[in-house]
C-alpha cells in the first residue's frame, strides 16, 4: 500500500485513495475554510490521493437546490483554498464531478427518460439531445475550472445510479436517439464526457472514471457491457478507473457494517484482466491488512476508502508505522455520516466526532492539569477518558465489570456487528498509551472518590434496562437482553421479544442467526442474491437461496405501525429485510397481560392472543443509571453527566461519544 504509483505525467506517493464523501461543509457559510481543514488533516495523515464530495457541472445536476456546482470562473477561488491546503500537506486531490440525474432532490431534475426514482420525490424531465450535448460540454467546463482551481484531476461519477449510470442501463434509458437503444448508444455519453474533459484539460491531468462494475439492480449492465465500456473509456483517455458498486435504489447492502470486508474486490479483479489502465478497489476496506491482501493478490492497483478517513485521518501514517492498534477503525455504522447526509446534516463520525469539525472541536493542552474520575467505561466514559488525557488531565476510569465497552460489548456479539470489536481494541490501546488509570472490577464509591481527592467527577454509568411488572414476569424464562447477549442465559427455540427498537431488532438477529454471514462471504452473497460468476445482468442471481429459520421468533411492539421506523435512515431497511429472511414475525399495537406455561398472553386490537413461546426477552427500553448521583453531591466538587446516564431514551453511542468530546474540550 505504501508503494508509489507512476501515472506517467505524475505519480502518487502510495496506493491509498480517500474516496468521495459529501460532508455538507460545501454548502455552509465559510464551509470551504472548514473543508480545507478537513482535507488538510487527511493529507497530513499520509493518504496518496483525495477525491472530494460530488460537485455538479450545472444547475440541474445538483443533488439538492443549494448543492455546490462549479460552472463559472468566479467559483474557482473558494476551491483554491482546499487545493492549497492539501498540496501544502503533501497530497494530491481530485474533484468529483457528479450529475444527480433523477436522484436530484429538486423539481428541476433531468434524466435520460421521464422515469421517477423510487428514492426521490420528483419526476425528472427527459433530456433533449441538445441538453445531453450541453451537459457533456458542462462536464468539460467544470473539469477545466477544476484545473484552474489547482486540482490535480477530476473523478467523473459514472456509477451508483446517477445520471451517467442512468444513461448506461436500459432500466432508466428508454431513448430512441443516438443516446439510447443499444449499449454503444446508451454508453455514448460516458465516452463523450471523458473525451470532452480530456480535450479541455490536456494530457497532464488525472481523469478518474467511477465505473459501475456491479449495478445490483434489474436490467443492469451485463459483464460484457462493463468490459466493453471500460475498454472504450481507456481509449478515450482515462487515467484510472474506480470501482462503483450498486445503485442507491438497490435492495442489497454494499457498505453497511454487515457487509463482509472487501466483499466486492472480486469484481475489480475480474476487470483487471481486461484492461491495462490502473483500477481502484472499493467498499468495506477498513484496515491495513485488508488493503495489503487486496493489492498483494493482484485484485487492484489502488484501494479507495471513504468513511475510514472520517474515523481516523492518520490511517496511512499509523499503518506505515506498523501501529495498527492505534487506528480508529470505521465500523460501517453509517449513523453519523450517510444518515446525516441523507438528512441534509453535516456528516461526521460516530467513533470520531472531530470529523468535519476540525476547526471547532479540538483537544488543546489544558492550562491546569486536573485530577478527574470517570465512572463507567462504556462509549461515553471511554471516549471522555481518552480526550481528557490527550489534554493532559490525570484520569482514573472506574468500571464495575471486568472489561471496558459497556453496550459495545453487547453490540459486538450481534451477527454483522463484529466491527465493534475494533472500537474496543482502539480504546484499550488509547487508554494504555495515554496513561489512564483503568480500574476494572471496581465499583466507584463516594468513600473511594473522596479518599483520592479528585477535582471533578464524570458520571458515565450508562443505563439499566427498564423492568416490566406483569404476572409471570418473575419467571426464570423471562430474561433481559443484557443477560442473553452476555451469554449468561440461554433460551429455547420459540422466543417472544418485547420491544421492537434497535435493541429488539439486534436480539432477534442474534437469536435467528447462529453463525454470522458477515464472516462467511459465500453465504452472504447467496443471502442477498449476488451473482459472483456474473452470468446475469446487474450481477443478480436469478433465484435467491431460502434460509430455514433456526428459531420461531416474535418481535412485539406497543406502538401501532410497522416496527423499525426509528432505525437508521440508510441501514434500517437492511435490518428489516434480514429479520424477514429469517422468518421473524412482527406484531404491533400489543398490550401485555401475563406469562405462564402456555406462553405470553397479549392483546392486539382488543383481541386476546397467546404466543406459544418458551422464553420472553425484555427489550422494553432503559433508564439512566443515576444511582450514585445523590451520594456524589456529598463530595462538594463538580459532577458532570454524559452518555446514557444523561439521556436514556434511545441508546445512542454517537451522542454519547460526542457528549464526551464536548465535555473534554471544556473541562
UniProtKB/TrEMBL annotation:
Domain of life per record: Bacteria
NADH:flavin oxidoreductase/NADH oxidase N-terminal domain: residues covered: 2-323
Keywords of this entry: Flavoprotein, FMN, Iron, Iron-sulfur, Metal-binding, Oxidoreductase
Needed cofactors: FMN; [4Fe-4S] cluster
All copies of domain FAD/NAD(P)-binding, residue ranges: 371-640
Similarity comment text for this entry: In the N-terminal section; belongs to the NADH:flavin oxidoreductase/NADH oxidase family.
Protein name: NADPH-dependent 2,4-dienoyl-CoA reductase
Organism: Shewanella yunxiaonensis
Amino acid at each position: 500500500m505504501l508503494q508509489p504509483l507512476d501515472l506517467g505525467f505524475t505519480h502518487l506517493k502510495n496506493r491509498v485513495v480517500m474516496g468521495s464523501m459529501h460532508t455538507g461543509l460545501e454548502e455552509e457559510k465559510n464551509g470551504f475554510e472548514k473543508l480545507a481543514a478537513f482535507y488538510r488533516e487527511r493529507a497530513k495523515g499520509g493518504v496518496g490521493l483525495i477525491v472530494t464530495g460530488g460537485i455538479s457541472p450545472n444547475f440541474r445536476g445538483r443533488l439538492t437546490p443549494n448543492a455546490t456546482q462549479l460552472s463559472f470562473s468566479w467559483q474557482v477561488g473558494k476551491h483554491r483554498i482546499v487545493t492549497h491546503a492539501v498540496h501544502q500537506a503533501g497530497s494530491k486531490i481530485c474533484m468529483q464531478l457528479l450529475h444527480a440525474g433523477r436522484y436530484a432532490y429538486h423539481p428541476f431534475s433531468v434524466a435520460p427518460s421521464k422515469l421517477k426514482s423510487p428514492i426521490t420525490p420528483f419526476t425528472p424531465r427527459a433530456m433533449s439531445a441538445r441538453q445531453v450535448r450541453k451537459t457533456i460540454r458542462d462536464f468539460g467546463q467544470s473539469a477545466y475550472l477544476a484545473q484552474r482551481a489547482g486540482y490535480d484531476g477530476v473523478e467523473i461519477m459514472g456509477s451508483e445510479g446517477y445520471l451517467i449510470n442512468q444513461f448506461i442501463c436500459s432500466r432508466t434509458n428508454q431513448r430512441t436517439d443516438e443516446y439510447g437503444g443499444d449499449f454503444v448508444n446508451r454508453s455514448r455519453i460516458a465516452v463523450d464526457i471523458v473525451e470532452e474533459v480530456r480535450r479541455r484539460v490536456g494530457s497532464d491531468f488525472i481523469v478518474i472514471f467511477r465505473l459501475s462494475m456491479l449495478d445490483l439492480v434489474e436490467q443492469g449492465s451485463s459483464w460484457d457491457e462493463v468490459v466493453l465500456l471500460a475498454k472504450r473509456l481507456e481509449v478515450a483517455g482515462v487515467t484510472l478507473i474506480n470501482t462503483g458498486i450498486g445503485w442507491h435504489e438497490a435492495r442489497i447492502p454494499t457498505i453497511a457494517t454487515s457487509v463482509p470486508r472487501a466483499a466486492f474486490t472480486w469484481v475489480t479483479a475480474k476487470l483487471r484482466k481486461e484492461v491495462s489502465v490502473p483500477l481502484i478497489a472499493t467498499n468495506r476496506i477498513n484496515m491495513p491488512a485488508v488493503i495489503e491482501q487486496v493489492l498483494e493478490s493482484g485484485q487492484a492497483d489502488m484501494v479507495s476508502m471513504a468513511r475510514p478517513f472520517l474515523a481516523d485521518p492518520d490511517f496511512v501514517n499509523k499503518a506505515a508505522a506498523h501501529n495498527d492498534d492505534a487506528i480508529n477503525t470505521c465500523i460501517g455504522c453509517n449513523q453519523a455520516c450517510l444518515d446525516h447526509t441523507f438528512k441534509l446534516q453535516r456528516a461526521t463520525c460516530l467513533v470520531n466526532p472531530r470529523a468535519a469539525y476540525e476547526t471547532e472541536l479540538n483537544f488543546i493542552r489544558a492550562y491546569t492539569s486536573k485530577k478527574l474520575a470517570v465512572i463507567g467505561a462504556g462509549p461515553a466514559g471511554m471516549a471522555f477518558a481518552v480526550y481528557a488525557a490527550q489534554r493532559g488531565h490525570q484520569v482514573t476510569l472506574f468500571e464495575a465489570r471486568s472489561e471496558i465497552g459497556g453496550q459495545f460489548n453487547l453490540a459486538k456479539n450481534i451477527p454483522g456487528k463484529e466491527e465493534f470489536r475494533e472500537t474496543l481494541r482502539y480504546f484499550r490501546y488509547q487508554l494504555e498509551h495515554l496513561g489512564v488509570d483503568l480500574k476494572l472490577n471496581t465499583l466507584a464509591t463516594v468513600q473511594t472518590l473522596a479518599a483520592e481527592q479528585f477535582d471533578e467527577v464524570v458520571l458515565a454509568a450508562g443505563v439499566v434496562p427498564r423492568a416490566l411488572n406483569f404476572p409471570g414476569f418473575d419467571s426464570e424464562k423471562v430474561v433481559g437482553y443484557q443477560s442473553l447477549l452476555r451469554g449468561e442465559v440461554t433460551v429455547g427455540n420459540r422466543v417472544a421479544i418485547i420491544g421492537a427498537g434497535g435493541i429488539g431488532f439486534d436480539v432477534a438477529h442474534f437469536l435467528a442467526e447462529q453463525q454470522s454471514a458477515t464472516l462467511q462471504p459465500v453465504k452472504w452473497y447467496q443471502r442477498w442474491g449476488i451473482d459472483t460468476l456474473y452470468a446475469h445482468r446487474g450481477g443478480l442471481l436469478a433465484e435467491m437461496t431460502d434460509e430455514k429459520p433456526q428459531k420461531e421468533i416474535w418481535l412485539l411492539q406497543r406502538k401501532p405501525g410497522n416496527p423499525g421506523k426509528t432505525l437508521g435512515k440508510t441501514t434500517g431497511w437492511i435490518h428489516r429485510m434480514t429479520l424477514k429472511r429469517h422468518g421473524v414475525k412482527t406484531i404491533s399495537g400489543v398490550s401485555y397481560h401475563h406469562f405462564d406455561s402456555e406462553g405470553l398472553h397479549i392483546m392486539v386490537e382488543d383481541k386476546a392472543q397467546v404466543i406459544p413461546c418458551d422464553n420472553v426477552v425484555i427489550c422494553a427500553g432503559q433508564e439512566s443509571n443515576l444511582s450514585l448521583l445523590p451520594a456524589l453531591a456529598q463530595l462538594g466538587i463538580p459532577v458532570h453527566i454524559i452518555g446514557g446516564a444523561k439521556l436514556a431514551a434511545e441508546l445512542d453511542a454517537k451522542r454519547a461519544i460526542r457528549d464526551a468530546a464536548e465535555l473534554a474540550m471544556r473541562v
